Every structure is written in C-alpha cells, then in structure tokens.
Amino acid sequence: xxxxxxxxxxKDKRVIEEIHKHLWIESQKAGDSIGLERATDxxxxxxxxxxxxxxxxxxxxxxxxKAADKSKKPKDKVVSKRKRTAKVAKK
Length: 91
What we know:
The protein has helices at residues 3-10, 13-30, 36-55, 57-71, 81-90. The longest helix is centred in the middle third of the chain and has 20 residues, at 36-55. By secondary structure, the protein is mostly helical. The N and C termini lie far apart (53 Å). The model has no long low-confidence stretch (mean pLDDT 82).
C-alpha cells in the first residue's frame, strides 16, 4: 500500500481502535509497553490489507486494481482445443 492509502486508513476511527488493541495485546505479551509507533507500524504491515479487504471491499478492489493494471501484460489470444479441431475438420 502507498503512504497516501495508509494515511487515509489512519483517519478511520475503527483502524485506530484496532491499532490500540494491537498495542495492548503485544504489550501484554512483551510484559511492557511496545509503544504506539511500533504498534502502528506492525499493524499496518501485518493487518491493514486484510482489514481493508474485509471492511472496505470496494476501496480494496480499487487499490488492487490499479496495482494489477500496471503489471498486466497483453495476453495472446488463446484458441480452445474444441475450436482448433473444428477449424481442422472444416478444411
């Protein structure tokens, strides 16, 4: 995800709540506070994509669609086996 997309996520109160939950859970595991910055970084790396996919599927598709469009190469036209045999039979 790009930084602009991450910034948009951080404006959502639900994301902030999730980050605070992550902070609490990981701090409990560590026996000491891991800090909000570390919790935010970890949550964004580990869970932001899944959260976006579940809670905002339209936005997720848009984000993934743009990335996929850049990497798509034009595909050769594939002729099915059935069509190939039909063409051979006609000759």
